[in-house]
Design goal:
This protein is of the alpha/beta class. The chain is built from eleven helices and five strands.
Length: 212
Amino acid sequence: MNILLCSGRESVLERWSSILAARKWTIFKVNSFEMLQAAVRQDEPYLLLVHQSFVDPQVIARLNSAVPNSRIFILSDTPNPDDGTLLLKLGVIGYASTYIAPARLIEAVKAVLSGRVWFGQEIISRLIRSIAPPGEPAGGSEPSEILAPLTQREREIALLVAEGLSNLAIGDRLYISERTVKAHLGSIFAKTGAQSRVKLALLISKGMKEGH
């Protein structure tokens, strides 16, 4: 997948490209929306690393339309949970600081290229809480079809994820280590087909609504 770096600031473009240059990724740099549209082809997938000052919600919608096979990762000079939650709802797959540490930027790019999302836990938890069935906690009634393949412990963890709890909070609730929670989550994702906490929460939320 080609990587397009999008910013109106040359210093930002140079920073990102120098960090990612060591990897075997094809990287392009653009400093305007017009250049971005000219650089992409409709039938090719792209990862867009976009400086937040480069876009607003309307532009993100235009990007999704202009490059439908692509993934958008926003980097902000002043990241905050409110913006992150909005961007996640708009279909953005990653959100981080413009000046994220080099190793973390590489880790983030690898994560989103593999199909995962890259957001802070607070943002993920906010979104999950917002999609829980109204009027009841996410764990209020169990969507049996989705949870059927899971062990009892995995069911407990899946429902707590759907409530928006972090791995640490789940571990505290169930008196198990954070590492054990992560191990169970790997099994839960494999059995349910969910690739992220958000997708798992959406599956559980949908199952609850269909069960009423």
